[in-house]
TrEMBL record:
Domain named RCK C-terminal: residues: 136-220
Species name: Paenibacillus spongiae
Any matching Pfam family: TrkA_N
SUPFAM superfamilies the record matches: NAD(P)-binding Rossmann-fold domains (SSF51735), TrkA C-terminal domain-like (SSF116726)
Organism domain of life: Bacteria
Record field: transmembrane: none
Protein name: TrkA family potassium uptake protein
InterPro entries with a match to the protein in the record: NAD(P)-bd_dom_sf, RCK_C, RCK_C_sf, RCK_N, Trk_Ktr_HKT_K-transport
Gene3D superfamilies: NAD(P)-binding Rossmann-like Domain, Regulator of K+ conductance, C-terminal domain
Length: 221
C-alpha cells in the first residue's frame, strides 16, 4: 500500500509541530503557508514547502491538494481564512480534513461545512494540565467524546497491595480499569484478582463526572 500523503496548512506552533512529527515518522508532507518566512523555516524538515494563500481556490487547486489523503488546516487567529480554506478544500474533494478551531463556535462552523475532525489543541492541553494540577498522580487525561474520557493515574497509596475486586472501581465510581502498567509491561486485560503494586499506573475509562469523582477521592488520599 502506498504511504499516506499529508498536507498541512498554517505553520504556526501547532501546524509546524504536526508537519515535523509526520515527517519524522517517515510520511510525505507538504507544508503550506502564506508567509514566505515560515516556509523557509520548515523547508528542510518537510518534503515540500510552498508559500500560498489558501483562501485562493485556484492556488489550492494548482497545488494539487485534492491528491493528498489528509489535509490539516492549522490556521488559528484568522478565523475567516480558516473557514474559507476548509470550505474550498471540502469542495475540491479532499478525502480527510482535520481542522484546528480557536473556540467552540469556530469548531461548530467547521463541522457544519464538512471538516471530518475538529481539534482544539489549546483547550485539550489546558484540560490535561488542570487534571495534573488536581493531583500529580494524574499522568494524563484524554477526552474520548464530550462525555467520556480516559484517565492515566499513578497508583495512589490506598490502592497499593489490593486487587481490582477489592477496589471495586466499577461499582464505586462506575468506571472501568482498562489496563495496569507495571514498569515497561502493560497488562491490557486485567483480572479481578490482579494486584496493584507501588509505582503501577492505572488506565481508567469512564464518564467525565465519574472520573472526577474518582480523581478527587484518590487525590485526597
Ligand atoms: P499556533 O497557536 O499554532 O502558533 P495560531 O493559532 O496563532 O497558531 P496563526 O499564527 O494565526 O495561528 O496561523 C498559523 C499560520 O497560518 C501562520 O503562519 C499564518 O501565516 C498562516 N496563515 C494564515 N492565513 C493563511 C492563509 N490564508 N493561507 C495560508 N496560510 C495562512
Amino acid at each position: 500500500m502506498a504511504k499516506m500523503q499529508y498536507a498541512v496548512i498554517g505553520m504556526g506552533r501547532f501546524g509546524s509541530s504536526v508537519a515535523s512529527a509526520l515527517s519524522n515518522l517517515g510520511f510525505e508532507v507538504m507544508a503550506i503557508d502564506s508567509d514566505e518566512q515560515k516556509i523557509q523555516e520548515v523547508a528542510s524538515i518537510v518534503t515540500h514547502a510552498v508559500s500560498a494563500d489558501t483562501t485562493d481556490e485556484e492556488a489550492l487547486r494548482a497545488l494539487g491538494v485534492r491528491n493528498f489523503d489528509v489535509v490539516v488546516v492549522a490556521i488559528g487567529a484568522d478565523i475567516q481564512a480558516s473557514i474559507l480554506t476548509t470550505l474550498i478544500l471540502k469542495e475540491l474533494g479532499v478525502p480527510k480534513l482535520i481542522v484546528k478551531a480557536q473556540n467552540e463556535l469556530h469548531g461548530k462552523v467547521l463541522s457544519k461545512i464538512g471538516a471530518d475532525k475538529v481539534v482544539y489543541p489549546e483547550r485539550d492541553m489546558g484540560l490535561r494540565v488542570a487534571h495534573h494540577l488536581i493531583s500529580p498522580n494524574i499522568l494524563d487525561y484524554i477526552e474520548l467524546s464530550d462525555d467520556y474520557s480516559i484517565l492515566e493515574i499513578k497508583a495512589p497509596a490506598q490502592v497499593v497491595g489490593k486487587n481490582l475486586k477489592q477496589l471495586d472501581i466499577r461499582a464505586r465510581f462506575k468506571c472501568n480499569v482498562l489496563a495496569i502498567k507495571t514498569g515497561d509491561s502493560m497488562n491490557i486485560s486485567p483480572y479481578a484478582e490482579d494486584i496493584i503494586h507501588e509505582q503501577d499506573t492505572l488506565v481508567i475509562v469512564g464518564k467525565n463526572e465519574d472520573l472526577t469523582n474518582l480523581e478527587i477521592t484518590y487525590a485526597e488520599g
